[in-house]
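Subject: Sanity check before I submit

Could someone independently write out the structure tokens for this chain? I want to compare against mine line by line before I put it in a report. The sequence has 462 residues.
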Amino acid sequence: MFKPEKFKGKKACILGLGRSGRQAAALLCRHGFDVLISEEHEMAHLQTLGLPAQAEVETGGHSEKVFACGFIVKSPGIFPKSAVLKEARKRKIPVFSELEVALAFAPKGICVLAVSGTNGKTTTTSLLGEILKEYCARLAPKRRVFVTGNIGAPVSAAVDQMKPKDFLVIEVSSYQLEDSTFFRPKVACLLNITPDHLDHHGGMANYIKAKARLFKNQRANDFAVLNGGNEYCAQMAPKIKGTLTAFSALPNHPLKTDVFFDGDEIIFSAGHHLRPPKLKGIHNVENAMAAALCALAVHVPANIIQTVFDRFEPMEHRIEPFAYHKGVVYVNDSKATNLDSTIIALKSFDRAPRIWLILGGRDKGASYEVLLPYLKMHCKGVLSIGECMDKIERELKGEFPIIRCGTLEKAVQTAAAHAKKGDTVLLSPACSSFDQFKDYEERGRVFKKLVNDYIKKERAGK
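---
Independent answer below. Compare away.
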């Protein structure tokens, strides 16, 4: 466990110059630590990153300076079996996650609620954050809500602003959990587990193990929220130490649930009846169930939850219809960075083959063959882009029509040429964006711009 007083006087090494690494460095500098930031890649734009002036920075590789430090804070994206981490552990240098280091500086008495899962984390975290903000505004004006993690600012950026009894809502990834040995949220929510990040974790077993860390340190007075309709989540139930509540919008589920959906309302065993938010897809009903159970665990009244559900709007890059032209709908689902997300997106549309699906990017290790039943049910064709085009064609060719596009720009041009009135052009790539874009958000914004520019040009030409 990272205890600041135990490591006082020892130099900290931050591995990785990503957002969480930069904020961890700033936090440690604020608390009097000497800091080395070590980045594997060359970075020519250091002056734009807002790094703490007192931190030492090296880029283009990890030097021996790393191993002269008293402890290491690992950025989530660094592979667990990377050479630098192997050497650090060989030399018995403690390695911590940004999450645990940040929480070590948080005041006692804060209420930590953590949301994880393969899909739905951001929507659920946002819903929960809005519910808690509404609760504080109405009934607890002295308490504040901080929504952090993958959804926005890292925890390191917020802890110095917190006071006892504040709410800290964290969107937690498997990358963060695999490095967090002592993490203990008051409320822990696991939305689902499907194959993802298998290249990083080295297989499904390690991925599940990382997700299970969410509950590992909980005690009897803590709360766990699980998807009872997901077999991997249900298998964790016997080891849960806290109060367990389960949800599922599916008719059959391996774990007894405390809430179900009757097609119109979310009905809780405690007696509450809530209308779900106006979000597309049954998966968003489950996200709402999970957010509500987390809020109820910390005594938020049901009427406050309903207020937030009624006003909650769809989030950008998540099955987001954004343009209509000549009867064709354009939908941005750039956040779909794994196969299950793309399946969820396809299932949210009517059972008619009217979709032109833009698929591809950087591969994450799973087989595209699982998409075939859904492609045949919902799609007219696949427009392939990115590094994994060859793999997509190899695994789907002969089973489903594929048009090789390469770039997102070419895919938009091709879709516009083929789509007819009543069709949908859907960007739901099932891959990460890092082969051609900074992140999924940039990919989504570029897609929207390409489409909107095409529509403007078409209309101007009339």
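---
OP: Matches mine. For the report I'm noting this point. The two ends are 66 Å apart (CA to CA).
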